[in-house]
Task: structure prediction
Amino acid sequence: MAQHTDGGRVTMKDIAAALDVSINTVHKALTGKSGVSDAVRCRIVKLADELGYRRNAAASNLRRKRVRIAICLPAATGTGRYFHAYLWEGCRRHLDEARDSGIEAEFIDFEIGSYAPCLSRLVERVEAGGHLDGLLALAPAEGEETSLLRRLTDAGVSLILLNGDRPQTKRVGAVVADFESAGGLLAEQAENLLRFAGPGARVLLLSGDAAMPSHELVARAFRERLRRRWPGLVIDEVPGAHGQADELHRALLAHLEAARPALAVSVFALGSEILADTLVELGLAGEVAALGSDLFPESIAALRQGVFTNLVYKDPVGMAYRAIGDLIDAVLWHALPANEVQTGSVELVFQSNLAQVCARASANLR
Result:
């Protein structure tokens, strides 16, 4: 039975908690709005009737005021097209479904390296009296970005962080990718591909930028699992950051020409694109087994053509969709997420399930 949270009167929060759905979902179901399946709507209405829920007209009218949120994420252009474009996709998808909820959304994008100046301008606006109820923002690095986000929460802005967490910001919650599971999935598939490899087999690992948690955590989980299972396996690492495409290509060429590995793996998107291109360039596509990361047009083409055996997909669309839902619940209903830090799903993509994963990710992926 739901617990009453308002002096004995049943609230939407009670119904949401009893059915393990968001308060925004309950609101849509009970007000006849779109974005809820018939089955879920039926369950919500049935429980509301059983509990004697009565809509509070005064509270409903109060909620009709415009609520302003901002979304501050890296631009979807350049290297942002690999991952951040799909964060934007998830945000827009949820906002389209919630378009009649009284939410007014502002989209703020920034180029990599200019996050702090972007936040600084937003802080100036809010501290000068600009109205902002909530903010969905990329998880900051230590230092200035964290301090700026804390100034916003101190000013009364509800904050949800995406793709990482910094409790020091006083955020309401965070939605993060499961990087360790991604590395574990890559390692598990690597084991399958290496099971017939002889002694002294080598794996070439494009380990990304060690200063980026999204790269380092995946690479570490991959290394640790493989080394536990294959103590004699040699892992040759080729690091590289997003701004080092040419250097990464040259280093990869040198490794592949010096010794052919049994398997090549990339833990990040740019590395995956360069790995696929280099294998084709050297005529090694299909001869060297390869695993890539993330879902974007080039990685999809490489999987379809057999250059990659698999891709690991961290579902940025689903992460952002969930994060926007948490933010809307916080600003409309003052509801906290069930868990402060929620972890996104990770899956291994094969040719056989590629079409279904692409359809879930974006209408622009084919």
About this structure: Confidence is low (pLDDT under 50) at residues 1-7. The radius of gyration is 23 Å.
